[in-house]
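can u do me a favor
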């Protein structure tokens, strides 16, 4: 059986960044920029006052002038009326354009008002050209590359795109991820389950985690464990970049997902990995038109996750999230684990490596991991209360308090 590391390598080997697309600016946060973005104008677009005060010409002060005639007021958003003459100043507000003839701003605290229209500067005070002024084009010159291709767009970068007037941007788009929950025992969460039924929580786990990973989730209706309708549901799921199926991937007689996917042209890549929880994981690829040389279809990555909700969480973190990151052009690396000491002894009786939900706590002045009590891979609440998962080596194994272990955080 494949190790989790080998399974990851196989998955990531099939992940290519999605083709570039143009999107509205409000859909670009976190995306990789796919073009060099140029400034459409100088920023700031005019010589701009950085403080409230008086705009004047520094050389007037060098000439020995100390009293200035205040001619008019310039507020942010208004353009100065006329050029200042020698010995003249304009009252100016932060963010306003400097008037022609001025090259500096003296803070209002640094002058004395003699009357309504005269301000005086003390003899000690010097003024240099450019003082308290942000020169036109100082931040960004028109035509300059403001943001380079390949940059991952954070909030500030989104603001820069806005400031150069770009409301459409070429980026690597978010992958569309469809979810097909399967199982005759499932009902939707607003229904009262019958005696043998359970609510479809996996759809909510996955939708949330896909959103967090920067994918665009779409949950399809619950599919029954019946070949014909399952085939229709999975076929609808293939209209996406990634299809996640939950349930029906083990080897029981109601586990019809692998055969049904194969009948829809999805090529199996692997089935089952050496891991607990998450062993029945199935992964396959529906090839693109170029690969198949036929009607125009896109490549679809297909994950068949076991139905147990904690298996869903672990398999998502280890395999699906990295695939989403790779399709977004961000990373092809495996999920990073931290190394932390154990706050208490932990045992793994299984021969497979095991992920156990755990909280981070203090232990001898260190951050350490302590397992939360849980009832196994069906017990989603254990994961809900955890900060992540301790990775225990394949067993049987027992690690003492203070032993260093790998820790898989739930939040990246
Ligand atoms: P399966 O992988 O189909 O054998 O399902 C394994 C376990 O996961 C069963 O106990 C199912 O009831 C449970 N399960 C399957 N699908 C879901 C779902 N969508 N939400 C919550 N639990 C599920
Ligand atoms: Mg099932």
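np, heres the sequence
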């Amino acid at each position: 059986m494949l190790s989790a590391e080998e399974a990851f390598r196989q998955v990531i080997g099939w992940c290519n960044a999605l083709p570039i697309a143009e999107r509205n600016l409000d859909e670009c946060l976190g995306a990789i920029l796919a073009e060099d973005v140029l400034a459409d104008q100088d920023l700031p677009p005019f010589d701009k006052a950085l403080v409230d005060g008086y705009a004047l010409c520094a050389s007037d002060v060098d000439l020995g002038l100390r009293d200035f005639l205040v001619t008019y007021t310039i507020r942010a958003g208004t353009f100065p009326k006329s050029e200042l003459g020698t010995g003249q100043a304009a009252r100016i507000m932060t963010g306003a354009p400097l008037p022609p003839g001025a090259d500096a701003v003296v803070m209002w605290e640094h002058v004395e008002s003699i009357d309504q229209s005269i301000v005086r500067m003390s003899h000690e005070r010097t003024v240099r050209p450019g003082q308290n002024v942000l020169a036109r084009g100082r931040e960004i010159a028109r035509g300059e590359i403001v943001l380079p291709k390949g940059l991952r767009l954070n909030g500030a970068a989104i603001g820069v795109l806005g400031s150069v007037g770009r409301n459409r941007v070429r980026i690597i788009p978010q992958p569309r991820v469809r979810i097909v929950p399967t199982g005759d025992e499932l009902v939707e969460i607003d229904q009262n389950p019958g005696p043998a039924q359970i609510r479809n929580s996996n759809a909510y786990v996955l939708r949330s985690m896909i959103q967090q990973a920067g994918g665009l989730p779409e949950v399809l209706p619950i599919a029954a464990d019946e070949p014909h309708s399952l085939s229709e549901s999975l076929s609808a799921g293939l209209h996406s970049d990634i299809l996640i199926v939950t349930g029906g991937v083990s080897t029981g007689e109601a586990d019809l997902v692998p055969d049904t996917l194969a009948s829809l042209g999805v090529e199996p890549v692997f089935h089952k990995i050496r891991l607990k929880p998450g062993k029945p994981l199935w992964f396959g690829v529906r090839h693109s038109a170029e690969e198949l040389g036929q009607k125009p279809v896109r490549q679809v990555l297909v994950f068949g996750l076991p139905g147990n909700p904690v298996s869903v969480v672990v398999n998502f973190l280890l395999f699906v999230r990295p695939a989403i990151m790779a399709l977004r052009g961000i990373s092809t690396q495996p999920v990073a684990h931290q190394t932390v000491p154990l706050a208490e002894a932990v045992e793994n009786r299984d021969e497979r490596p095991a992920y156990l939900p755990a909280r981070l706590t203090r232990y001898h002045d260190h951050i350490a991991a302590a397992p939360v009590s849980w009832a196994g891979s069906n017990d989603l609440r254990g994961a809900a209360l955890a900060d992540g998962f301790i990775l225990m080596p394949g067993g049987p194994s027992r690690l003492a308090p203070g032993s260093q272990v790998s820790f898989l955080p739930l939040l990246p």
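The mean pLDDT is 96. hope that helps!!
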